[in-house]
Amino acid sequence: xxxxxxxxxxxxxxxxxxxxxxxxxxxxxxxxxxxxxxxxxxxxxxxxxxxxxxxxxxxxxxxxxxxxxxxxxxxxxxxxxxxx
Length: 84
Known about the structure:
Layout: E1 2-3, E2 12-20, E3 31-39, E4 42-46, E5 51-53, H1 56-69
Antiparallel strand pairs: 1-4, 2-3, 3-4, 3-5
């Protein structure tokens, strides 16, 4: 997780947000779904991306695939080949 130092003992929350991180794509826009952490409503850090794409619209399409995963049976790691 990338984060800033936070000295406040205030309210900690999180949500999923699309974050543009051109620093990971040679300076070109790269939109990805991240868990974003907040301290007193101010974003202070985010996790590695859950998924990403070249535009916000591409990430939205991926979101539909992610939503569909909740309608399918859970896979067990032993039922899947090598981890990517």
